[in-house]
Amino acid sequence: xxxxxxxxxxxxxxxxxxxxxxxxxxxxxxxxxxxxxxxxxxxxxxxxxxxxxxxxxxxxxxxxxxxxxxxxxxxxxxxxxxxxxxxxxxxxxxxxxxxxxxxxxxxxxxxxxxxxxxxxxxxxxxxxxxxxxxxxxxxxxxxxxxxxxxxxxxxxxxxxxxxxxxxxxxxxxxxxxxxxxxxxxxxxxxxxxxxxxxxxxxxxxxxxxxxxxxxxxxxxx
Amino acid sequence: xxxxxxxxxxxxxxxxxxxxxxxxxxxxxxxxxxxxxxxxxxxxxxxxxxxxxxxxxxxxxxxxxxxxxxxxxxxxxxxxxxxxxxxxxxxxxxxxxxxxxxxxxxxxxxxxxxxxxxxxxxxxxxxxxxxxxxxxxxxxxxxxxxxxxxxxxxxxxxxxxxxxxxxxxxxxxxxxxxxxxxxxxxxxxxxxxxxxxxxxxxxxxxxxxxxxxxxxxxxxxxxxxxxxxxxxxxxxxxxxxxxxxxxxxxxxxxxxxxxxxxxxxxxxxxxxxxxxxxxxxxxxxxxxxxxxxxxxxxxxxxxxxxxxxxxxxxxxxxxxxxxxxxxxxxxxxxxxxxxxxxxxxxxxxxxxxxxxxxxxxxxxxxxxxxxxxxxxxxxxxxxxxxxxxxxxxxxxxxxxxxxxxxxxxxxxxxxxxxxxxxxxxxxxxxxxxxxxxxxxxxxxxxxxxxxxxxxxxxxxxxxxxxxxxxxxxxxxxxxxxxxxxxxxxxxxxxxxxxxxxxxxxxxxxxxxxxxxxxxxxxxxxxxxxxxxxxxxxxxxxxxxxxxxxxxxxxxxxxxxxxxxxxxxxxxxxxxxxxxxxxxxxxxxxxxxxxxxxxxxxxxxxxxxxxxxxxxxxxxxxxxxxxxxxxxxxxxxxxxxxxxxxxxx
Amino acid sequence: xxxxxxxxxxxxxxxxxxxxxxxxxxxxxxxxxxxxxxxxxxxxxxxxxxxxxxxxxxxxxxxxxxxxxxxxxxxxxxxxxxxxxxxxxxxxxxxxxxxxxxxxxxxxxxxxxxxxxxxxxxxxxxxxxxxxxxxxxxxxxxxxxxxxxxxxxxxxxxxxxxxxxxxxxxxxxxxxxxxxxxxxxxxxxxxxxxxxxxxxxxxxxxxxxxxxxxxxxxxxxxxxxxxxxxxxxxxxxxxxxxxxxxxxxx
Lengths: 221, 648, 250
Hints:
The complex is a heterotrimer.
Chain A: H1 5-31, H2 37-49, H3 59-89, H4 104-107, H5 109-127, H6 143-151, H7 154-182, H8 187-217
Helix pairs in contact in A: 1-3, 1-7, 1-8, 5-7, 7-8
Chain B: E1 9-10, H1 26-33, H2 39-42, E2 46-50, H3 54-66, E3 69-73, E4 91-92, H4 104-114, H5 121-141, E5 166-167, H6 173-190, E6 194-197, E7 200-208, E8 211-219, E9 225-229, E10 232-235, H7 256-263, E11 268-269, E12 274-280, E13 303-307, E14 324-325, H8 327-331, H9 341-356, E15 365-368, H10 370-376, H11 378-396, E16 405-414, E17 417-418, E18 431-433, H12 451-473, H13 484-502, H14 509-524, H15 530-550, H16 562-586, H17 610-613, E19 615-620, E20 629-634
Parallel strand pairs in B: 1-20, 2-3, 2-10, 3-6, 10-18
Antiparallel strand pairs in B: 4-5, 7-8, 8-9, 11-17, 11-19, 12-16, 13-14, 13-15, 15-16, 19-20
Helix pairs in contact in B: 3-6, 3-12, 4-5, 5-12, 10-11, 14-15, 14-16, 15-16
Chain C: E1 3-9, E2 18-24, H1 33-46, E3 69-70, E4 73-74, E5 96-100, E6 109-111, E7 114-115, H2 118-124, H3 147-157, H4 164-168, H5 175-186, H6 195-208, H7 219-223, H8 231-245
Parallel strand pairs in C: 1-5
Antiparallel strand pairs in C: 1-2, 3-4, 3-5, 6-7
Helix pairs in contact in C: 2-6, 3-5, 5-6, 5-8, 6-8
């Protein structure tokens, strides 16, 4: 089944759904920043102790990372495969081509996805692998401090906000595509799918954006 | 008739091989008496089917299902594009689902009467009997016929008949039935029973010892000519309305397959029976390449009129009521705008000829819905005719809700075609002809919603038996590709293609086709006289000379050359035109779609002459330049009594 | 009106092809786009040049034979129309019009504007039918079909197989075409026994023909002369998923 075009789309839909779920949890966690340094760091630490003592220290986090990595790889693999099929399906392009449909979100799906992939790498480098680029010195082990120091650099804030825009577009089209691929988008459901994916595409980026903005504005320090 | 004798030779009568017995039992009796081919032997028989419309696709499918090897040819890029696809209205069947008094007998009677008593009674009865099975077949194939809320099939009344027996799928019944047949054909192609050859055109019939043994086909993409040999040849290649250039037929519709068969000895019957449809959109200028039909149902609510005074150029809303000539309502008070197709058409022609035509070209009559909109409201009109109004608007650029539509008759269907007996076999053994390409069931005029019925009846339920009977009953010696008849026929085709390419004159095939259409429409169209037909004869001869002396076809025959294909078809249409005119000249009576002005009643109605003309006129090719031979099949009516039509 | 045409010319599948420019005078605004091309071809013949090859047949929008890219739009700028039903009144005097064939790998160019759409037929050969033999049909009214289901099936069945969907799709995908036939038969009770086998067969063949995949852009529906909707794609995806991952029993 994974060899077929629809099979690849189902992979994209399924992995995409996992990532939407992850983004919601991630956003929820980020918002703890407003509860203060102690609460936030406690939350960050709880990610490692999650499930203890049934599972070992950090194992739940590891599992989550493995799942996220695998789904992301699958998502990208399917996207690349579909893109290549699409390119092979039209080896000779039109001299003049006016897209008959599609909005900014559909058109930027592939480039937006690529941009997001690059951002994720940077984001991980910055906050997980602790590579010190564009960021000042912070207290090791203090996640709150790492975040605040990072966003004190306006470049990071801008990059972050740009990435969130891409996330919004990606969710807008990808959310609708999820329902289409799963076969749940029909005339009767079209309206609520529009509302749901539209809300997600706005709520998730906004939910994420308030943190760097608050840091940049000095409300979180 | 004596002064015309030099125009044709008299020949022996044709025998339709109608089985004996009562009309209700003929088909059953024959089916029982026909020979069968054992299932294991069927794969040893190869049947060549030309055409993939309703008749061609259905016969190829049915034969494939039975286990015969079938090769099917069409000139389009897919069998799904055959012109059956364009039929709008519906398909008749004597199901009597409406409980309104329909029956096999009534459908039979209506069809005989509609054909103005110029068809073979026994064939039509069989058609009416089979009609019900066609609907069952279509539904099983997945044809999405219109449904009632209860889930049962819906019916409507169509073409002025008094019962609701027409099944339909929106305005696309032909498309849906063709797709049904195409799907079944596709299944046989996938199963390897039918070999489908698209973009392939039959250019000749191979006859060996008087028996049809194959065809010569040109691959339209590569130009390759080859013989396809078979144990039987089936032509299901449609009608020849394009002899009039402007018609509602697809541009590709042509007479070549059956005309080539005619030139190889097959009898061509009743070519002068052509059907005119009254509600088409008039041509908008010399660029016009085809005409578009709009459903006849428009006449239910629209009122037809022209300005009373010739040369009146006022816009329609500025013409006051007394200056409007509602010619159908005035002449036929009881039927008004709902008179039959031919009557409506001739009257429209008459007023246009008198200078009362409307529109920029003065070539139409108004079909006015303003009164109906006042009476019923715009919403009702939209609901009834919305799609037709949209189509009209799209083609003409005029909004029919605001200004009256303009309509004019156009050629729509041809009842004539190759002569076939009761078993749909032509006089050439092994050559079967189905659907519009044969002459069989519609007499001098076809009832609305009957063309689809006939094509599918022939293809699914008649020919598969009679072809089997033929294959089982004859012992044919094998014909090989190097037989002189085979190589000779290929050589004939090659020479003809070279001839077309070799003229290198100045006129294009399109210009010549236009001229052909002009002659046919003006001199042999809705109304014909001995004089106009004689003029047509002369002008067609001149046109044929002009064609063969002054044609220009570019390119070569070794690749896709659309102009070459087209030129070959026009050449055949010109020759057919000559035969059509001769047939019209010989038939000194009016019947159905054939109206001779010399033969009309006091109130201008078509007047049949049953004494002299109650026969099928079958024409036989006698060689280049020789007068054709006329062979008659007398028509005898046992089950219905001949009566005169009256609509006044 | 006067037009400047830029038309794709290609003598054969092997030829690389090129654009050629033509000037055309006296085009009637009432003529159809194909009648305009007829006029161009008559002009070319007068100059003793090869006319432009293009596919066409019924010229009333139902046979699906015609199909051109007109100024970058499949079948031209008017929605719900085939190019044979497109009239020149939608253009202006002096317009430049670029005319190209469908550009899809699975529709190789044969000559000029003529392409080979045999891939569509082959997709349908992998299940685009109901398996039954002539003569076995039950009485028509023994199969009841609710009106709305019959209407939905008809919406899908109106597909004319012209190829505009694939031509306009940024991915060169034949998904709408395939979904239309899957939807037509899948909505009817007669189509149920083979429903899941059909969708797998047809989708796999669609892929094998080299069409692209669907990314839910919707260009196909926008250019479809019969305006066949995206719902059918969704339903085909659902059927395919059920066929592959279970749930095909319901």
